[in-house]
Amino acid sequence: MEDQMICSTCGTYFPAASAPRLCTICNEERQYIPEGGQSWTNPGELHNKHKITIHQLKEHLYELEITPQFAIGQRALLVLSQNGNVLWDCIPMLDKATIDFIQSKGGLKAIAFSHPHYYSNMNDWADMFDCPVYIHENDAPYIVQKGPEIKLWQGEELTLWDGIKIMLIGGHFEGSSILHVPFLSKEGAIMCGDTLFLSPSKKHFSVMRSYPNKIPLPLREIRRIKHRMSEISFDTFYGYVKAQNLDADVKEIFENSMERYLAE
Predict the structure, then answer these.
(1) pLDDT in tens, 141-174
(2) How does residue 191 score in pLDDT terms, banded at 50, 70 and 90?
């Protein structure tokens, strides 16, 4: 682990021997290099200053966060399922307490991603739990360490088990995806990363090419995303942080939000 360098802005891990001068994930229009310049940390420093906290959101669903917040500050979501557990997105840290907790729940059968900003130390997670990592082939160019467990999937959706599906949505990244879990609510729950972004008011969804840099998507892309989401049944939403949980009027709020974008 100590031969890794970690981007302090996005949490992506790079081999120390071949790390670029600038993080290739941040040095792209959807992310950013801070005004003070590129900064790096390493796993030892990260573990000395931070810990992982785990909270149960509901039966069969947990969130994992790094505290104090590090880099982007996303959470990972652990879905417990009869035929195998799924980790949705990664956090850029893995410690013994977290390993023991996940093993006590049956381990992991798969890791799946919304988009490249959360790849972080995915190979460490995959190695520890001996499971595949599912990434849409559209986002393959953003994989900075091609570990043996990475599986590129194609098309509009990938069915896992127990009705769980990874679904291509696009927009933020060409491979931006959601995880659809039918048994977490009556109509099904979606886990999004920030493929979709729920406002603090919880009354509006944004779909953008870049959220930090406020780069919009073309209207034709918003129309496509609106149509794509209309084909999916859901009534519960989990975004990239705990403030982005919603379980009332979710589809109506999403559809109204897209109409605001498209209004003449």
Answers:
(1) 999 999 999 999 999 999 999 999 999 999 999 9
(2) very high
Read off the pLDDT of each residue in 29-43 and give the average, rounded to a whole number.
97
The two structure tokens encoding residue 178:
């959601």
pLDDT of residue 225: 98
